């Protein structure tokens, strides 16, 4: 008799086919990789559950379970506010929870599955469930590191105090993750070390599609266009504030050195972005397939100065053979070296100098991009990452059966 394949419930806060930003790219590729382990059913917890178009696209590739939109449950009372701040077992962290009926229905399905894979702690908390049986938590962004980076970037004393409290509150919860889940994964070795390096914690990097496998090696346009590009959702605060910082403090120096340079902004919300210096800035909004656009860029910028996890933009730039200039936080979690794979700069003057250097030395920039592309092919295609996903799933199955 043929042995039954494991049944896997993949729980996330947005449909895997719901868009092309980092979290959904990760969600889609995790779900695809898990099919090598067992039969995958996708369910969504949160407001995105009501996106009927994204659900229909997901149904074209996966079995789909319950869609659970949740309800607003703000922590308005003093007791609720104090518990959120000081009780690490208080689950209503986000002011959004499942209805009792959806929570009951979800828990009743648990015996049907051999493995429950949750994408990010927000999904688990909104579900209102503390202890998850035979479950793996994939932490794409470590919440407290987001708060910490925002605190360090803030110029407001009051804001820094609030963020310090938020960081501490989140950190207390993260320490308890091993109590709630059988196994865990993060995006980088640095995040694993930050969370204590538990033996049950796996590293699953953020990757990008195998561009060469799909359509041959990427081809770049002429360098004489002097285009600098950024790709990312502007509704995501670290993206928006990073672009605003770049335009206010970096762009004027670049324009002085290269008056013909243009800045190209790709991503939803960029078309409405208000900028202090918008000279020769093209706000393109959503672009369904950005490959042709990125091929015309002289360099890609990742001016991110706050946030958690790793930036998929780094892997995308490498995959497109586009030279990259990033802040150290923008490149966090990737094993890269300044001037070997990309240019790294923290300050506005340093960032401007790095961009100008790339524009002024296109041959060296091309060689740098080639080295980055080689590293991407070895480490950061989703095909290269798949064995790490499979190992994490199998580890969770082994440990669950041993209990």
**How far apart are the termini?**
26 Å
Rg, Å, rounded: 22 Å
Tally of individual helices:
16
CATH topology of the largest domain: Rossmann fold
The number of domains is: 2
Q: CATH first level of the largest domain: which class? A: Alpha Beta
What value does the average pLDDT take? 91
Helix content: 40-55%
Beta content: 15-25%
Question: What global shape is seen?
Answer: globular
Write the layout of secondary structure elements.
Elements: E1 7-12, H1 22-34, E2 39-45, H2 52-59, E3 63-68, E4 71-72, H3 78-86, E5 96-97, H4 100-109, E6 115-119, H5 121-127, E7 135-139, H6 143-153, H7 157-174, H8 177-180, E8 183-186, H9 189-194, E9 201-203, H10 211-215, E10 227-231, H11 237-257, E11 262-266, E12 281-285, H12 291-294, E13 299-302, H13 312-319, E14 324-326, E15 343-344, H14 348-360, H15 362-379, H16 382-402
Keywords:
15 strands, alpha/beta, 16 helices, 403 residues, single chain, 7-stranded parallel sheet, Rossmann fold, 6-stranded parallel sheet, 2 domains
A few lines on this structure:
The protein has 403 residues and is an alpha/beta fold. It has 16 helices and 15 strands.
Explain how this protein is built.
The chain has two domains: 7-140 and 175-207 and 382-402, Glycogen Phosphorylase B (Rossmann fold, 3-Layer(aba) Sandwich); 211-379, Glycogen Phosphorylase B (Rossmann fold, 3-Layer(aba) Sandwich), CATH 3.40.50. 44% of the residues lie in helices and 16% in strands. It has 16 helices and 15 strands. The protein has helices spanning 22-34, 52-59, 78-86, 100-109, 121-127, 143-153, 157-174, 177-180, 189-194, 211-215, 237-257, 291-294, 312-319, 348-360, 362-379, 382-402; strands at 7-12, 39-45, 63-68, 71-72, 96-97, 115-119, 135-139, 183-186, 201-203, 227-231, 262-266, 281-285, 299-302, 324-326, 343-344. It has a seven-stranded parallel β-sheet with strand order 3-2-1-6-7-8-9. The chain is globular and about 65 Å long.
């Amino acid at each position: 008799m043929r042995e039954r394949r494991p049944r896997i419930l993949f729980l996330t806060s947005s449909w895997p086919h719901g868009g092309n930003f980092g979290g959904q790219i990760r969600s889609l590729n995790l779900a695809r990789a898990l099919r090598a382990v067992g039969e995958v059913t996708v369910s969504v917890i949160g407001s995105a559950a009501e996106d009927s178009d994204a659900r229909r696209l997901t149904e074209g590739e996966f079995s789909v379970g319950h869609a659970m939109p949740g309800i607003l449950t703000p922590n308005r009372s003093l007791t609720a506010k104090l518990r959120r701040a000081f009780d690490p077992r208080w689950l209503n962290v986000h002011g959004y929870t499942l209805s009792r009926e959806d929570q009951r229905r979800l828990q009743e399905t648990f015996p049907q599955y051999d493995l429950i894979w949750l994408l990010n702690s927000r999904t688990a908390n909104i579900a209102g469930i503390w202890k998850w049986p035979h479950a793996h938590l994939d932490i794409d962004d470590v919440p407290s590191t987001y708060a910490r980076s925002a605190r360090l970037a803030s110029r407001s004393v009051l804001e820094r105090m609030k963020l310090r409290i938020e960081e501490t509150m989140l950190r207390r919860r993260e320490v308890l993750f091993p109590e709630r889940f059988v196994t865990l994964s993060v995006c980088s070795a640095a995040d694993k070390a930050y969370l204590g390096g538990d033996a049950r914690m796996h590293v699953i990097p953020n990757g990008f599609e195998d561009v060469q496998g799909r359509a041959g090696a990427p081809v770049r346009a002429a360098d004489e266009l002097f285009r600098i590009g950024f790709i990312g959702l502007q509704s995501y605060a670290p993206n928006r504030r990073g672009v605003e910082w770049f335009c206010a403090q970096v762009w004027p120096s670049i324009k002085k050195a290269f008056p013909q340079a243009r800045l190209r902004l790709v991503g939803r919300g960029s078309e409405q972005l208000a900028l202090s210096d918008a000279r020769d800035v093209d706000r393109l909004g959503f672009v369904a397939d950005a490959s042709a656009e990125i091929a015309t860029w002289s360099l890609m910028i990742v001016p991110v100065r706050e946030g958690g996890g790793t930036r998929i933009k780094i892997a995308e730039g490498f995959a497109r053979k586009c030279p990259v200039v990033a802040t150290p936080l923008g490149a966090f979690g990737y094993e890269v070296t300044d001037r070997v794979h990309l240019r790294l700069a923290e300050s506005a003057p340093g960032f401007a100098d790095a961009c100008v250097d790339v524009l002024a030395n296109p041959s060296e920039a091309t060689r740098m991009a080639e080295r980055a592309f080689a590293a991407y092919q070895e480490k950061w295609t989703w095909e290269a990452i798949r064995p790490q996903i499979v190992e994490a799933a199998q580890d969770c199955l082994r440990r669950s059966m041993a209990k």
